[in-house]
Amino acid sequence: MNFLLDMPVPPSLSIVLNQFNYSGIHVSKIGLGTATDYEILEKARRDNMIIITADMDFPRMVALAADAGPGLILFRGGNYSNQEMENLLIKVLERMDISTLKQSICVVDKKRIRVTRLPITKK
């Protein structure tokens, strides 16, 4: 599985992904460093990638699309050091199977991990 690392997260997260036999590429490495959120979202959809970000716009865009993907890992709740993000990503990858991540919004903060399955529909 491939992951697309958004600008607010460090490229070093790809090292963590590699430890779990996944691959990740930072948007800055593929010419998307100044891309809009919609362009990044479309890249992830097209290439079946999970987005890792700290940008609060992505959950809204994914939810409004009412699609089953792309999956999203969102770091929220403040500023994180690179090491804190790496440690939190390890926790996510240890606890979540890839099939769930592909079809979920996974919100991560310093205290917990919350998962909402996609698509999000009105009740």
Describe this structure in words.
The structure is a single chain. This protein is an alpha/beta fold and 123 residues long. It has one domain (2-117). It contains 5 helices and 6 strands, in the order βαβαβαβααββ. Strands 2-1-3-4-5-6 form a 6-stranded mixed beta sheet, with helices on both faces. Helix 1 (13-19) links the parallel strand 1 (2-5) and strand 2 (23-26). The longest helix has 14 residues, at 82-95. The chain is globular, with a radius of gyration of 13 Å.
Structural class, please? alpha/beta
Mean pLDDT, all residues: 94
**Number of separate strands:** 6
Could you list the spans in which at least 5 consecutive residues all have pLDDT below 50? none
| Overall 3D form | globular
Biggest sheet: strands, sense, closure?
Answer: 6 strands, mixed
Content of β-strand: 15-25%
Distance between the amino and carboxyl termini:
31 Å
Strand order of the largest sheet: 2-1-3-4-5-6
Write a brief caption for the model.
The protein is α/β, with parallel strands linked by helices. The protein has helices spanning 13-19, 37-46, 57-65, 82-95, 98-102; strands at 2-5, 23-26, 49-53, 72-75, 104-108, 113-117.
List the helices and strands and how they pair.
Elements: E1 2-5, H1 13-19, E2 23-26, H2 37-46, E3 49-53, H3 57-65, E4 72-75, H4 82-95, H5 98-102, E5 104-108, E6 113-117
Parallel strand pairs: 1-2, 1-3, 3-4, 4-5
Antiparallel strand pairs: 5-6
